[in-house]
Amino acid sequence: MVVKTDSEWISLPEAARELGVTWATAWNALLRGRLDGQKRGRVWVVRCSSVERYRRLRSVSLDEPA
After folding, report:
1. What is the pTM of this model?
2. Which domain covers residue 14, as residue numbers?
3. What is the pLDDT of residues 51-65, one digit of tens each?
């Protein structure tokens, strides 16, 4: 995992790879506001800090008993 500063952005496909999910899952998280992103030209980018926050939220929800 690459550690980046809070103000840095990565592409949506990069975010998906960092999270170990498909592009579609990352896209759905972006649409639902779980990832902080914006469109720059033709490319969607995601704030690195939101990727880390989403990773923590996913690990907590996966650790909880069903």
Report:
1. 0.78
2. 9-63
3. 999 999 888 776 666
